[in-house]
Amino acid sequence: MTTRQRAAGAVVAVLGALGVTASAYLDWYGGRDATEIPLERLFQTSVSGAPSSYWNSMALALAVVSVLGVVGALLLSRFVLLLGWLIGAATLVLWIVMSANDDSLSVSAGDIQTGAWVCAVALLVLLAGIIGMGRGRRARDDTAERVDPVPPPAP
């Protein structure tokens, strides 16, 4: 895997990470975007009201994905990018599960709005970029020509 291919995969991954963060500013459910959904919503079903600030909203977790995406791309680190992908995927999945389990809400797939769908697609783009980066040095070392050891001289 050449450095150019790794860099191209990193660029795709950054676009996906930025898409995840951009989804925070689109409507997710009931005309509310991720900045209006409390972070506690990812862990509790009976949370109501708006968060006290941006730092207590679900958008914070999605913004972390963008930061990790940019850092991972600059370092060409699949690990950092994968960590960002895991945070984004966990945020989306936990929000869906907790919203579906909330007795006061009746959520169906048709009720989920643009923001959640953009987040899901951006996570797929981020994952495609990570996969497109390849395995790195280990993959190149395996293709190197192997030299058999010289047998000891006969007695």
UniProtKB/TrEMBL annotation:
<keyword id="KW-0812">Transmembrane</keyword>
<feature type="transmembrane region" description="Helical">
    <location>
        <begin position="54"/>
        <end position="75"/>
    </location>
</feature>
<keyword id="KW-1133">Transmembrane helix</keyword>
<feature type="transmembrane region" description="Helical">
    <location>
        <begin position="82"/>
        <end position="100"/>
    </location>
</feature>
<feature type="transmembrane region" description="Helical">
    <location>
        <begin position="112"/>
        <end position="131"/>
    </location>
</feature>
<protein>
    <submittedName>
        <fullName>Uncharacterized protein</fullName>
    </submittedName>
</protein>
<keyword id="KW-0472">Membrane</keyword>
